[in-house]
Amino acid sequence: MSPIGTDEFTSWAHLPWRRRLPSTLRDLYRYVRTDLLWMQLLMENRAGVVVLQYHSVPEPDAAPFIEPGNRTDRDLFCRQMEFIARHRRAIDIDSALRVIDGTQKAELGTVLLTFDDGYRDNHGYVAALLDSLQLPAVFYLPTGAITGGDVPWIDSLYCAFRYRTRNDLRLPDAAVHYNLDDLAQCRTTYRALHAKLIAADLQTRTSLLAYVVDALAPSASPPRLVMTWDEVREARRRYPRICFGVHGAEHLDLTAQAVDAVAIDLDACKKDFQREIGEPPQHFAYPYNRSNPGLRRSLSERGFRSALTSGSRILIGKWTDALDIPRLDAPSNFRLLSHWTLGAFYVRGVRVGR
């Protein structure tokens, strides 16, 4: 069976009316909104830091194995980084924290670049490009995957659907068969499994994912997609503008786990990083950008200085909690990138929470 198209998992029917507009009208709506917000921002002389989130920027051979929502085309990424280097002010995480504590001011157009999930291309292509443009960034590592070489679960699920050789799927807790030949059922099933695996504990996620992969019998398996610890150490030596933080041990939604499971995961990622890097991690990115007050207390108790999440007040400054720093997915549209990196955006048009 030939691979399915990457649009098979997307559907516009469930989106708000603004997202269901034809693309030209939708873009016009977003442009007008962001133009107005940009003018308001300039008139109020407000400034802060915008945190941009990326994941993988894969080479062509690896791209077909990475979930489309987690990858950025290399040509697009290169143009975005060149734009930021020429027209914006990229700062490191320590400078962002000084903006938050009030000891440093941020200019309009100040940006912090962040990369999640420890993809292998971050070590090679991304780090080298950032270094050539003198751009600092933070890479957040899911330490369990780095240690074990595990394929990110979202990519395993994506590949199981994309390269499936079987179209009948019956989940362990459901009596109904899903016919993946039917496009609507395929989309619905993929989204339902995606949501279920995000909220699952580690044992449930591992067993359910293995069941789905076995049931769909994909014709291709992903290569190693994440860095090794040797590559992490090499990147730290070669690219001093790159800071490394952690992204949990097992990339679990920590807001959906029992208290004991949260403590185990946080302690494990801290221990992994300390063992491999020789110092404790100071910076954290909440998996799926989901946090709560209990998690923030747990990070504070473990000595973390910063943590990234999602939120409605994307522009960060003295009003921001260092353990609750909001960020947004970088848009592919250059006009929106230009506006958003100046702090002008509307939250309904921003993707957060991956």
Key features of this structure:
six-stranded parallel beta sheet; 354 residues; 44% helix; alpha/beta; TIM Barrel
Brief characterization of the structure:
The chain has 354 residues and is of the alpha/beta class. The chain contains 13 helices and eleven strands.
Topology record:
Layout: H1 17-20, H2 23-44, E1 49-54, H3 74-87, E2 89-90, H4 93-101, E3 110-116, H5 120-132, E4 137-141, H6 143-148, H7 153-162, E5 168-169, E6 178-179, H8 183-199, H9 202-216, H10 229-238, E7 242-246, H11 259-277, E8 283-285, H12 293-301, E9 306-309, E10 325-326, E11 328-329, H13 334-340
Parallel strand pairs: 1-3, 1-11, 2-3, 3-4, 4-7, 8-9, 9-10
Antiparallel strand pairs: 5-6
Helix pairs in contact: 2-13, 5-10, 7-8, 7-9
Describe the structure.
With 354 residues, the protein is α/β, with parallel strands linked by helices. The chain has a domain at 47-148 and 225-326: TIM Barrel. Helices cover 44% and strands 11% of the residues. The chain is built from 13 helices and 11 strands. Strand 3, helix 5 (120-132) and strand 4 (137-141) form a beta-alpha-beta unit. Helix 2 packs parallel to helix 13, helix 5 runs parallel beside helix 10 and helix 7 (153-162) runs parallel beside helix 9 (202-216). The longest helix has 22 residues, at 23-44.
